[in-house]
Amino acid sequence: MEEQGLAGEYGIRELCAEDAAPVLAAYLRNREHLAPYEPDRGDGYLTLEGQRAAVAERLDGIRAGQAASWVLTHGDDVVGRVNLSTIVRGIFRSASVGYWVDRDHVGRGLATAAVGYVCGAALDLGLHRLQAGTYPDNVGSQTVLLRNGFTLIGPAPAYLFIAGEWRDHLLYQRVLHDRPPVG
């Protein structure tokens, strides 16, 4: 896969089947860091077979036009992910954005650069609007979204089942353009 420069010595490239092992290594390094933000996926998720299955499922979604996924890299290491999920076509032309950055690489502008990159990729995919949610106290993630032109929609009580409970979120959106849908 072709890698693009992202921020300093960081890169971004599309997720591929060979990423199962480096993504697993990143999840294992960041298990505690990501735990408050991740759904319970069971013990098998954090195994090589679990990541091969998760990556294969994501690649199936990409081929079906329902998702897009990238890995953030630092040398040979995966240090984050950014995803477009729930891609809807037709008159809606929308997707949800999700992302995370390795605990040892937070605060370097990587998430801001990755979300900016994905906003451009969403335009290339013909999307009109992106949505993202954050915990109400996740000021860092809210700052990433605001720096990328997202605006607050408002609170979404009990929005997602994360870390064993229904969690409130603040929803943000970015309208990418005002052109009519093509195709």
From TrEMBL:
Source species, domain of life: Bacteria
Q: Which residues cross the membrane?
A: none
Q: Where is the N-acetyltransferase domain?
A: 10-177
Q: Which UniProt keywords apply?
A: Acyltransferase, Transferase
Q: Name one Pfam family in it.
A: Acetyltransf_3
Q: Which InterPro entries match?
A: Acyl_CoA_acyltransferase (IPR016181), GNAT_dom (IPR000182), N-acetyltransferase (IPR051531)
Q: Gene3D superfamilies annotated for this entry?
A: 3.40.630.30
Q: Family, per the entry? A: Belongs to the acetyltransferase family. RimJ subfamily.
> What's the protein called, per UniProt?
GNAT family N-acetyltransferase
